[in-house]
Amino acid sequence: MTISATIRSDATRRTADSWRRQTSLRRFYTALGIGLLLIAMCTAMWFADEANAGHFFDRLPHILDFLSWLVPKDWNDVWRALFDIASPHDKGSQEFNFPLGRVYLWGGFYLPEYFELMLTTLNVALVSTFIGFVFAVPFSFIAARNLTPSPVLRLVVKRFMELLRAFPEIVIAGLFAAILSTGPVAAIIAIGLHSIGALGKLFYEINENIDMRADEGLRAVGANWFERVRFAGLPQVLPNFMSYALLRIEINVRISTIIGAVGGGGIGEELKLSISRGFGAKTLALVLLLFTTIFLVDQFSAWLRRKLVGEQAFMMSA
Questions:
Q1: Helices (H), the chain
Q2: Confidence category of residue 312, pLDDT binned at 50, 70, 90
Q3: Mean pLDDT throughout 140-155?
Q4: Do residues 114 and 82 lie in contact, with contact meaning Cβ atoms separated by under 8 Å?
Q5: Closest by CA position to 242, among listed 166, 314, 158, 308
Q6: Mind spelling out the 3-state secondary structure of 196-257?
Q7: What is the dihedral of CA 113, 115, 120, 122, to 10 degrees?
C-alpha cells in the first residue's frame, strides 16, 4: 500500500510539474507575442507619421483649431440649415443660403435639401444591396461544396466573387464615374458589385452547413438541381440570407456616403463641400442628419433581423 501510494504521489507531482512548465511556457509565448505586436504597431505608426505630409503628432494639437471653425455663431442656424429656414445672418453668401436648397413638391410644401440628399444616399444603398442580393443567392448555391459537385464550376464562381470584393467600392466607383460621369448610377454599380462578392461569400458558407436530409429525399425521388435548391436548401437558409442582407444595408449606407464625397451624389458630396468651406452650421446639420439616419437604420434592421431569425438565435449568439 505504501509503495503504491508513493508511486501515485510521484505521478501526481510529475503531472503538476509538467502542467506548471506548460503554463509558464504559454505565458512566455503570450507575453512575447504581445510585445512583438506592440513593437510592430509602434513601428507602423512611426513610419506612417514620417510618411505623412504634415507629421500627425506635430499637427495633433491643432485639431482644436479646425473644430473651432465649425462652431456656428448662432446654434439655431443648425436647425435652420437642416430644415431650409432663412437665417437672419444671411448676407448673400453660400454659408447661409439655406432656403435656396428647398425641393418644392407641391404649392408651398417643400422637402428640405439635406433630407432629399439623404434619401438619395439611402436609395443608393437599397438598390445596390438589392442587386447584390439577387446575384449573390444563385452564386452562393453554385459555390457550395455540398450542393454543386463540379469543382471547376465552384472554383470559377468563388474566384469571380473574390474578384468583385477585392477592390474597394471607391475604386470601382471612380472607374465607372470616368465612364458614366459622376452621380448615383456609378455609386450603385460600384456598391452593387462589391455587395455581390461580400454577400456571396457569407451565403455560400451558410449553404455548406445546411441539413442535407431534405436534399437527399428530393434526390431520391428524381428532383433536379434547381428543385433541390428551391425546396430543400432555400427554405433553410432564407432567414439568415435576409439577416445578412439587412446588415449589408447598414454597411452600404455608410459606404454610399463616402462615395458621395468623391462624386457619387447624395449627402456625402454636400458634407465634403461644407467641411472644406468651413460652413459650421451646415456641417453640423449634415452630421446630425447622417447620425440620426444611420441610428434609425441600425435599429430598424436589428429589429427586423430578430423577427426573421428569431429571438432565440440572438440569445444563443450572446
A1: 2-51, 56-59, 63-69, 76-83, 113-143, 151-166, 169-180, 184-207, 213-220, 225-228, 234-259, 267-277, 280-309, 311-317
A2: low
A3: 92
A4: yes
A5: 308
A6: HHHHHHHHHHHHCCCCCHHHHHHHHCCCCHHHHHHHHHHHHHHHHHHHHHHHHHHHHHHHHH
A7: 170
